[in-house]
Amino acid sequence: MDLRAALQQGSELLEGAGTPAPRLTAEVLLCHAVRRERVFLYSHPEHELTTVEWIHYGRYLHERMQGKPTQYITRVQEWYGRKFRVTPAVLIPRPETEHVVEHALEAARGASTVLDIGTGSGALAVTLALELGARAVATDLSLEALGVARGNARALGAAVEFVCCDLADGLSGRFDLIVSNPPYIPEHEIPALQREVRDFEPHLALLGGRTGTELYGRIVTQAQALLRPGGWLIFEIGYQGEAGVREAFAGGPWAEVATGCDLAGLPRVLRARYAP
Questions:
Q1: H-type helices in 143-213, by residue range?
Q2: In this predicted model, what pLDDT tens digit does every residue of 215-253 receive, in sequence order?
């Protein structure tokens, strides 16, 4: 079978299974199977797949039709202009989380030390270390996730130290910037999540307790012992969590508490400056 026929067949199978963007998904999976860039599919449509390439492509299509996210099949997610390795041990980095980077670069451009709490794939820690030229520390409760993050830091040349702990428990030192994208899905919403998320992404990185905001209060308290005066704490938040996260800052040594919205106009980032 040649590339043209394989792409057509894959698109039809994915469409029949109700997979979003079936043509694009088939292109990505076919490129992964033949280890070629997308332009090759259209510049050499007559290329005959080898037996091994066809077997791989068939397996990738089957996995995607069963709901497995494309990124877990290809093991790659492009994020903030860089390619990050992802596995089922980590949450797939979302475009919305790039707003955290944008706010960090705006509010804490001169930061030389960064802490990323709950790093997952390491996307935030690695990106901020590179964009700011900073030294970063990243934590996660999952050793498997830290292995993925460490590999991304090594591959992209970022100076990041990784610590296995619950949020920031046991850390010491002072940081100019703390960022976090903690789990923020309320437990009652988990069953209604999209199949790709509910059945394949790690619940440890999704489940934010009864209300979805419980972890934010713990991080705000920890940050007061870890931020330098004038340093920034920047969260990603869920669309339903702004009020609960703001409550965590109430009455504390915080100034310039502000919310940023994503491209859909939904609250996505909440930042505050430590002002003891």
A1: 143-156, 195-198
A2: 999 999 999 999 999 999 999 999 889 999 999 999 999
